[in-house]
Amino acid sequence: MTASRESIMVAFEALFTPYLYNPDTNPSGAFKTISRVLKTPDEIAPETQSPAVYIVQMPESYQPRNGRGLPAKVLMNIILWVYTNPKADPIPSKVLNDVLDAIDTALRPPLSGGQQNVQTLGGLVDNVWIEGEVPRESGDLDTYGIAAVPVKILVPQTQ
Question: Which domain CATH number covers 45?
Fold first, then answer.
C-alpha cells in the first residue's frame, strides 16, 4: 500500500468535517456527530447528537492487476451508518434526504487538480465512491431514521 490504512481513514473522515454542525461557526451543518466508533441508535441522544454519521471499516479485498509482477490493488469497504431524529421535521424522510445529500456532496471529487473526476483523498488513493444499494428507514414509525451507505476506496499497491 502506498498510504497506510490509518492515514486513508483520517483523510476520509476529514471529508465530512466541513458538514459538522456548530452553532457558532456552522449552524447549517448537516451532521451533529461524525465518528469512527459505531454506536447503536439507542446510545445517542437524538436531539443533540443526530444527525450522526458513523464510519465503519468492513472486510477488504485484494484485486489482482493485469501484468506480470504488478501488485494487487486493495479495495477497502466502508459503511456509513446514518442516524437521524425523525422528530426534527414534520416530514421525517426530509431529514434523512438532507443527510444523504450532504454525504454525496462530501464525496464529490474536487473540481481542480486534474484528478479526472475522481475523489483521491488528496492523492492517497485511486478513487472513493458510493456503490450499491442504500437501505434506509426514515423513522416515520420509529424513534430514529437510519441508512447504511456503502462506500468503496480503491488503494494502489506499490512493489
Answer: 3.30.2000.10
Count of the separate structural domains present in the chain? 1
Domain that holds residue 93: 5-155
pLDDT at 115 over 60: no
**Would you say 13 and 36 are in contact if contact means Cβ atoms under 8 Å apart?**
yes
Class of residue 96 by CB neighbours under 10 A (exposed 0-12, middle 13-18, buried 19+): buried
- Residue 93 C-alpha cell reads as 424522510
Which residues have a Cβ under 8 Å from the Cβ of 62 and sit 6 or more positions away? Answer: 72, 73, 74, 75
What is the reported pTM? 0.88
Cβ atoms of 153 and 12 within 8 Å: the answer is yes
